[in-house]
Design a protein that fits this description.
- The structure is a single chain.
- The protein has 11 helices and 12 strands.
- Strand 5, helix 6 and strand 6 form a beta-alpha-beta unit.
- The chain starts with 24 loop residues before the first strand and ends with a helix.
- The chain has a 12-stranded mixed beta sheet with strand order 7-8-9-6-5-4-3-2-1-10-11-12.
- It has one domain: Aldolase class I (TIM Barrel).
- 45% of the residues are buried.
- The chain is an alpha/beta fold and 341 residues long.
- 28% of the residues lie in helices and 17% in strands.
- Bound molecules: S-adenosylmethionine and iron/sulfur cluster.
- S-adenosylmethionine binds next to strand 3, strand 5 and helix 11.
Length: 341
């Protein structure tokens, strides 16, 4: 932790940081494990955290509930692959009951949705993000180091059949691996009535398999590729996350978003914090400032006030922003599956 408080104009109880940004959005990583090994997310010989180090399901719910008491109105469950955590529906069901929570969402690779889509919707999940970087089976296998695209397609079908109203595709674009597919992916999103967000790769952890600077493909490049086929109309719409959205002329149901940590830094409007699967509260995706909530929860069993105090005081160390650098050594040694995307 590198910064210390020097300003404190915060109404009591509210989660407002030193730069007057209000935190209303919590992302919780519930596991670092996954059935896929996406090349930008993990190294091939990834080592997972011993299970005893993970927050229990009860502890996850306790943290979520206290954040909601403090004004958080949106929680995203992520990972790793969240649907691989045993009994994870319990977390969705309990968080879904909280008054004050406006939105409970999920980011998933989709492979387990045939099993879970119905129960997730019943628990109050109305919006999900499903990661899909390509429509080509061979490419999918290469990008995920052995995944089967049919499983994701079956997951998307299941989510629609279960009646989940908003589904967004998340696509990480890498030069020479899938950048030539952005038009096809938008076409697929339109055909199915999905939103789609294109994400610039972030340098989180050493991944081994490719040079991140060489693979960089900016949101502006994607936009100009798409502009040859679609008329993109800027909108001020937001889903409370970092995407900048565009509508497509003549298309009602699909928005195209861009998450551009390199080319269009979004830190000034940051409203989110993340909790890793070990209970480390990260105040910024691209910095190491953190508070160990697992220690607080375990040292004070059942004491919500101690937990709230720790959360409120964590706002003091939320940094102004990230400083990702694709060309130097990674400054963040956590991988995305650990952090929660
Ligand atoms: N397993 C789930 C999935 O793939 O959707 C949830 C966890 S995953 C870490 C969350 C999101 O982070 C995914 O959309 C994934 O594509 C994205 N992601 C992973 N590593 C990334 C990186 N280095 N840069 C940018 N996005 C990344
Ligand atoms: Fe698994 Fe998601 Fe990471 Fe891919 S991006 S390896 S699906 S956690």
């Amino acid at each position: 932790m590198r910064e210390h408080s020097n300003e404190s104009a915060r109404p009591e109880g509210a989660l407002i940081d030193r730069f007057q940004r209000r935190v209303t959005y919590l992302r919780i990583s519930v596991t670092d494990r996954c059935d896929l090994r996406c090349v930008y997310c993990m190294s091939e010989d990834v080592k997972f955290i011993p299970r005893a180090g993970l927050l229990s399901l009860e502890e996850i719910v306790q943290v979520g509930r206290n954040f909601v008491d403090l004004g958080v109105n949106k929680i995203r469950i992520t990972g790793g692959e969240p649907l691989h955590r045993r009994d994870i529906l319990k977390v969705f069901r309990e968080l879904g009951e909280l008054e004050g929570l406006r939105e409970l969402t999920l980011t998933t690779n989709g492979t387990q949705l045939p099993r879970f889509a119905h129960d997730l919707h019943a628990a109050g999940v109305n919006r999900i993000n499903v990661s899909l970087d390509t429509l080509q089976a061979e490419r999918f296998r290469a990008l995920t180091r052995n995944g089967k695209i049919e499983q994701v397609m079956a997951g998307l079908d299941a989510a629609q059949q279960a009646g989940i109203p908003r589904i967004k595709l998340n696509t990480v674009v890498l030069k020479n691996r899938n950048h030539d597919e952005v038009q096809d992916l938008v076409g697929f999103a339109i055909e199915r009535g999905f939103d789609i967000s294109f994400i610039e790769e972030m340098p989180l952890g050493v991944v081994g398999d490719h040079d991140r600077a060489e693979c960089f493909y900016s949101s502006d490049q994607i936009r100009s590729d798409l502009a040859r086929h679609f008329e993109l109309i800027p909108t001020a719409e937001s889903t409370g996350g970092p995407s900048r959205y565009f509508r497509i002329a003549g298309v009602d149901d699909t928005r195209v978003g861009f998450i551009s940590p390199h080319s269009h830094n979004f830190c000034d409007h940051c409203n989110r914090v993340r909790m890793t699967c070990e209970g480390r509260l990260l105040l910024c995706l691209g910095q190491e400032h953190s508070v160990d909530l697992r220690r607080v929860v375990r040292a004070n069993p059942g004491d919500d006030e101690a937990l709230k105090r720790a959360i409120v005081s964590a706002m003091e160390i939320k940094p102004r922003g990230h400083d990702f650098d694709l060309h130097g050594q990674p400054v963040i040694f956590r991988h995305m599956n650990h952090t929660g995307g």
